[in-house]
Structures are given as C-alpha cells and as structure tokens.
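Much of what follows relies on a compact textual record of a protein's fold. Here is one such record, which you should read through line by line:
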Amino acid sequence: MKTRKIVITGGPGTGKTSVIEALETHGYMCLHEVSREIIREAQKKGIDQLFLEDPLLFSELLLEGRIKQFKDADNIKAELVFLDRGVTDVVAYMNYFGNDYPPVFNRVCQEYIYDLVFILPPWKQIYTEDNERYETYEQAVEIHDELARSYINHGYQPVEVPQGSIDDRASFILDHLV
C-alpha cells in the first residue's frame, strides 16, 4: 500500500495547524510544520529571526526538514498522511521575499511529489501574530498568492478550503480527497 501524502498549506495565520490537529484527533497521521522548531533552535542560539538574518540557511534547513518528512511518510503504515506544508512552500517563500536560491530548490519540488494539496486562504478574523509569526495580515495575503502560484507552477491544482469552523474545514478536506 502506497501512502498518499496530502499537503495542507496557506499563508501565515490561516488555521493550518488547527486543521492538522483536528485531523489528528480524528485518527489521521499528521506531520507537523518544521519551521517553528528551526526558529526556536535559532532563538536559543541568540538569532531572533533566522529567516531575516540568513534566509538561504533557514530555507535550506526547511527543505531538509520537509524532505525528511516526505521520506518519513513513506514509512508510515497509513493510507493517508497529512503534512503541514510541503517542499514547494520553501520556494514560494523565497520567491515572495525576492531571495536568490540554487536550482536544487526547484529540482526538489519536481522530485518530491505530493498526491494532493489543500490551501487555506487568508482570513483576517483569525489572523494573529506571535513570536514566530511576524508578518502582517497584508503580507500573509501576498504570501498566500505566492504559495498558490508556486504550487500551480510545479504542476499542482491546490484545492481551496473555505472559511468555517475547524471541524468544517477538516471535513471539507476529508470530503475532497480524490
């Protein structure tokens, strides 16, 4: 049985983590966002925002973490594995911020292919900033647009998850698995 890898993506503060946690409580295997751990580790070393100080290093660490998750998903004995973001998110963020990156970033996006991508749109009423999320709501909207563009450019047709309760959004995802 091949495990299907389902990405849940979207700009900052769109409810991805809450939806992932809801899917988990319903018994689905979920792999969580790796960026917060990378940010916390950098902060322990006195680097407040690694992405701002060394965007390429931060993105390389993200790419490594997401490749590891992709490979880990292959070893999980489950029909579906939901991932909080995919390798294509790294390229989208680099594009959004106008940072240069090596060609291997796009090659990775062509090598590690997900079965389906869901994208959560910006939602001002639920958006909040925190210690790891420094973007404004307006920037979150622009990041969402770049994420959608990057996934489309890499051959995906992201399914947009409508606003609603966490359970409604999780149900929408489960109802739209192809």
